[in-house]
Amino acid sequence: MPKQSILILDFGGQYNQLIARRVRECSVYCEVKPYTTPLAELKAMEPIGMIFTGGPNSVYAAGSPQVDPEIFTWGIPILGICYGCQLMAQSLGGRVTEAADDTAREYGKTETYYQTDCRLFQGLPAQGVSWMSHGDYMERVPDGFSLVAHSDACPNVAICDEARGFYGVQFHPEVNHTEHGVDMIRNFLYRVCGATGDWTMGDYCRTAVAAIREKVGSGRVLLALSGGVDSSVAAALLAEAVGSQLTCVFVDHGLMRKDEGDEVEAAFSRWNLNFIRVDAEQRFLAKLAGVTEPEEKRKIIGAEFIRVFEEEAKKIGQVDFLAQGTIYPDVIESGAGDAAVIKSHHNVGGLPDYVDFKEIIEPLRMLFKDEVRQLGRELGLPEYLVMRQPFPGPGLAIRIIGEITKEKADLLREADAIFRAEIAAAGEDRNVNQYFAVLTNTRSVGVMGDGRTYDYTVALRAVTTSDFMTADWARIPYDLLDRISTRLVNEVPGINRIVYDITSKPPATVEWE
Ligand code: XMP
């Protein structure tokens, strides 16, 4: 049975995929289409409702994006957000102008008052913060519409025509800063469009598998598997879709965390894919011998990674597709619009230049991180892989300050494993976004038993952050730190002092190198 679908008409706003994500979060299928899509094509999709997105233009400006006026007599509900709201207002006989003074021009968090008898706001608080970003103002609302929200500066923050199922909001309900924004979207979907919530990540998975099969045909796919969440879920999805046509190359540079290589390999044993694990520890350690400068370490590892990968790719021969685990936040970060942008750096610097292939596929390109994790679960990947915290491409090399040796890497692996296990056992992993041990290059005097020691200092790093651009050091309970410290010095020979990093980013960074 076909699923109910919501059509998101894209006017070029920066949060458009976030709207799609919110609709999926409400268990409703959706598709984002450019506003230029012919009406007949939109109708053929038989959506139960439409959302008009925001956009950078002013509706009254010459050449601004418009829609076929017939869209408003089609008879399905519409939620217009920001530009989408103004477009609907203007198209139906209202008037939109540039906000005359600063008071009607609103950006950022704004206290907003809602009429909760409107279906969009039913069951929600009558007052709350909304996220505004508009310089235009609806001077006159169209006939049939009423005003259903206002702010201190602006009398017409939301409009609706309940009879036709038309709703417009000047703010962005899709962003987290808007309190109950998701609930407003849910109200639109369920109370207005009659959604039943018939879409699941399982559906997404089946659709994605079918699309990959169709695209790949009998072609061969190559993926560089890092063991991180994104490349692992991409690998699982591709394995599900094309099985033995997929080759995953997992370069183990010997600077992984404890048992990580084995865990990654084990996670893929259930699929009939070609899994190549390259044990390149000695190669990497040889290249890194005597190197202490952080940037040089990174460059050596990046270059060596490409060399190893290239050697493996040559053994495989011609591949048709190079797959990458690019996810939507990467697409935003690289400043991409709808055009296919190839993000070659993703733990793997510049890979596409070095490998012969016809096309790139990025099966996770439209998903957000938590959706990727959910998809991973759907595909049967183990929880430890799906919930894995970020791990830098150069691995432990940038957590061993100074020269890297196998002994130091082994020591750090043990210390890091204990730290992570204790954090998880205490349930602190729910509060902390990234946590790891660093082997400093400092040795100091200690006393153990009756003897003098002169051993390494391990630094513990744990941060809270939402985007890793800024981060705060995590307030881990002292008792837990005490337990970790005791275990580390008792269980890991070569360590006699533990320090906890209490710097935020900025001025520090998350990693030490
Ligand atoms: P920094 O140290 O820059 O780290 O504050 C921010 C986040 O990025 C991760 N990181 C990397 N990830 N390749 C990666 O894939 C790298 O070279 C790299 N360096 C840092 C870091 O672990 C943190 O999550």
| Fraction of residues in helix | 25-40%
Overall SS class:
alpha/beta
The overall pLDDT average reads 92
Q: Outline the low-pLDDT stretches.
A: 336-349
Kindly estimate the percentage of residues that lie in beta strands according to DSSP: 15-25%
Number of helices: 14
Shape: globular
Rg on CA atoms, Å: 27 Å
Cofactors, ions and other ligands in the entry? xanthosine-5'-monophosphate
Reading side by side through the largest sheet, how are the strands ordered?
A: 2-1-3-4-11-10-9-6-7
Task: Give the total of beta strands.
Answer: 20
Largest sheet: 9 strands, mixed
Q: How far apart lie the N and C ends?
A: 54 Å
Q: What this model shows, in words?
A:
The protein is built from 14 helices and 20 strands. The chain is globular, with a radius of gyration of 27 Å. Helix 5 (201-216) packs across helix 11 (369-378) and helix 13 runs antiparallel to helix 14. The longest helix has 23 residues, at 294-316. The protein has 513 residues and is α/β, with parallel strands linked by helices. The termini are far apart. It has helices spanning 16-25, 39-44, 83-91, 181-192, 201-216, 229-242, 260-267, 281-288, 294-316, 328-333, 369-378, 383-386, 406-425, 478-491, and strands spanning 5-10, 29-34, 49-52, 78-81, 95-98, 106-114, 127-134, 136-140, 146-151, 158-161, 166-169, 221-224, 246-252, 274-279, 321-323, 359-361, 434-448, 451-464, 472-473, 495-500. The strands form 4 sheets. It has a 9-stranded mixed beta sheet, with helices on both faces. The protein has a 5-stranded parallel beta sheet with strand order 14-13-12-15-16, sandwiched between helices. Strands 17, 18, 19 and 20 form a 4-stranded mixed beta sheet that branches. Mean pLDDT is 92; it is low at 336-349. The structure holds xanthosine-5'-monophosphate. Xanthosine-5'-monophosphate binds next to loops.
